[in-house]
Amino acid sequence: MTDQHTASAALAAVPIFGRLSPQVLSSLAQQTEEQAYAVGDVVATRGEPNDGLLVLVSGAMEVRRGDRVLKELGPGDYVGDISLIDGGPHSVDVNVTEGGMGVFLAGAQFRVVVKHQPEAAIGVMEVLVARLRETLEWLDAADQPNN
After folding, report:
1. What CA–CA distance (Å, rounded) separates 49 from 113?
2. Of 75, 79, 121, 137, which has the most beta carbons under 10 Å away?
3. Is the overall model pTM greater than 0.90, yes or no?
């Protein structure tokens, strides 16, 4: 179990949870586990099942696809937000480059909170729909002839 204040703050920084009330965030935080990581640990392997969301509280990780580094992660960054909802596999490899700690929310635990607090699902859906609309606007703009 994780310190509730740390877990709530970590989850609040994840965009899909941006519209959730403090009460719902607290409920989610109660379901998290603290996980420690050492340099060289493999956090995610592309194509492997993903069972939740990890928010990095301290340390650093590297997101890779093949030999290419896509992003460096630090405190406040996260992996697994979409898989938290759909249970899909990891789409990237994630390795620890600096030891630290993260807050982990399992997909099953997320679904327990959603079942008992449906406003959690509504808040997440609102954010996901906003992302979809933004993507559609980008596509519409890309379809416009250059002036």
Report:
1. 22
2. 79
3. no
